[in-house]
Amino acid sequence: MQNISSAARRGHRRSWKIESVSDEPSARLRGTPVLSPPLPRLSAATILAIEILYATGLRRAELLALDLGDVSVEDLVVRVRRGKGRVAPFGRPAAEVLDKYLRWIRPELMHGHRDEQALLVSHSGRRLDCYTLGEIVASAVWPALRAPPTSNAE
Question: How many domains does the chain have?
Fold first, then answer.
């Protein structure tokens, strides 16, 4: 799963800054697998879902139950109220995507549903459902899983 999350982050960075795989230090290592063809550009909401799932180990239903007040970008934690009721930490990559999502993406998705407190919302401004989240993650992950690994060994 680590390769999927890091590959998704690389794909996301390409949408912000153009860089080739060979410009990354880890790609210079002999025999380092490189995904081919390149991943599609992923939305901030997709990256956020993958980052939070990977970084915190949350279950899908726990992620979907998160409200705005359950997430702290400053403290780098998610407060899970469902299930075990725990606090799950996350790292800087997830915090960066979360910050961009909360500032720019989520407000555009709200469409007059300003009272919705869900962290992840659909294009209609309502809480994302389990099926849609599965489709979003699968559309991001399948290209990475189906791409044949190649080597940049000389």
Answer: 1
Q: Which one-letter DSSP state was computed for residue 17?
A: S
Q: Name the β-bridge partners of 66.
A: none
Q: Where are the beta strands (DSSP E) in the chain?
A: 33-34, 71-72, 77-79, 87-89, 150-151
Q: Cα(137)–Cα(116) distance, rounded to whole angstroms? A: 22
- Say which residues have a Cβ less than 8 Å from residue 93's Cβ, sequence separation at least 6: 9, 51, 55
Residue 71 one-letter amino acid: V
CATH of the domain at 132: 1.10.443.10
| Contact status, residue 73 vs residue 98, Cβ threshold 8 Å | yes
The residue with greater pLDDT, 39 or 72, is: 72
**Model confidence at 35: pLDDT above 50:** no
HSE-up of 93 (CA within 13 Å, CB side)?
A: 19
pLDDT tens track for 89-102: 999 988 998 999 99
Contact (Cβ atoms closer than 8 angstroms) between residue 36 and residue 147: yes
| pLDDT, tens digit (0-9, with 9 covering 90-100), for 52-92 | 998 999 999 999 999 999 999 999 999 998 777 899 999 99
Q: Which two tokens stand for residue 14?
A: 């390409």
Does residue 37 have a cis bond before it (omega within 30 degrees)?
yes
